[in-house]
Amino acid sequence: MDMQTNFLDRLFESGLLIETGVDGLYGRSGQFEDVIAAFERLIDRFGGADGAEAMRFPPGMNRAFFETSGYMKSFPQLAGTVHSFCGDELDHMSLLKCMEVGEDWTKDQEATDIVLTPAACYPLYPTVARRGALPMSGKLFDLQSYCFRHEPSKDPARQQLFRMREYVCMGTERHVTDFRQSWMDRGVEMMKLVGLDVTIDIANDPFFGRAGKMLANNQRDQNLKFELLIPITSVTKPTACMSFNYHQDAFGTKWGLNLEDGSVAHTACVGFGLERIALALFHTHGLDVKHWPEEVRKVLWG
Questions:
Q1: What share of the chain is helix, strand, coil (3-state, %, to 5)?
Q2: Could you give the CA distance from residue 277 to residue 115 in angstroms, rounded to a whole number?
């Protein structure tokens, strides 16, 4: 039995994760949620004094905004859309007949105006753009949302619906790159406080297709993305639990995000994979938090 399946089975047996019959779609126990809540309080202790504006978006976003984002050009394999029944009574009877005989009853469903949110920051950019020019001192936002990525897996650290906590910075190039570096330093410090061994490495997003390879190479060559890696189901291939991304002026240009002097805003973000961090803690310290090292418990629960 491989490490991924073994760890997943142990999580099910302990009740920390609840099986649903779909790989990567799990319920969470109260203890699992308590660990996430405690770690979010630790995030607040590190970032709370920065003056970020908090926003919480639902796990679905405006399809028109999603289309404008260009996500489908780069990551069509990960996207999820929301479809619904829009027919009449005859269509309904046909649907029920398909279900009764085991045929595909979803074939006549129609796309709605909602898509599943792929990253917590995606609804933020059009929201801020509608406000007008950003101050020259920049702007900082605190986000958290369930996100969807269509990549079913037996690896418990690769879930299809998961929570992402993000800080997003908008401003000048110097402002946002300083922000990113400060959170890279903070991220290492935070993980050390909770007893996790980490490394930070350059990375790239999973761009699709042959053109995607060029985008990935460009992203790595320009040091636009770094990840904080923690062993969860593999020592040789540790899991990315935090990401530190510099978008240059790509989102600023796309959404019309400008500073007060008329220049295009640069953006950067730091993302915490909350389920992954919780899993890293359970993998490292054991499945019963009562037996975790006292110094780790003190950091998380005081």
A1: 40, 25, 35
A2: 26
Full-model pTM: 0.94
Domain that includes residue 106, residue range: 83-115
Same domain, 160 and 44: yes
Phi, psi torsion values for 267, nearest 5 degrees: -135, 155
Residue from 264, 242, 51 nearest 173 by CA: 264
Same domain, 97 and 140: no
The share of the chain scoring above pLDDT 90, in percent, equals 89
- pLDDT, one tens digit per residue, over 35-57 is 999 999 999 999 999 999 999 99
Contact 39, 196 (CB under 8 A): no
| Residue 143 dihedral angles phi and psi, to the nearest 5° | -125, 155
CA trace torsion 122, 124, 130, 134 (10° rounding) = -120
Same structural domain, 197 and 109: no
The number of folded domains in the chain is: 2
What are the CB-based long-range contacts (under 8 Å, 24+) for 50-54? 50/140, 50/167, 51/140, 52/140, 52/141, 52/142, 52/167, 53/139, 53/140, 53/141, 53/142, 54/141, 54/142, 54/143
* Angstrom distance (rounded) from CA 140 to CA 145: 17
The DSSP 8-state label assigned to residue 262 in this structure reads S
> What is the amino acid identity at position 199?
T
Same domain for 98 and 211, yes or no, is: no
Helix H or strand E segment including 114? strand 110-116
Q: Which two tokens stand for residue 98?
A: 């398909």
Please answer whether residues 289 and 35 qualify as being in contact, where contact means their C-beta atoms are separated by less than 8 angstroms. Answer: yes
- Choosing from 60, 94, 115, the residue where a domain stops is 115
Mean pLDDT in residue range 218-228: 86
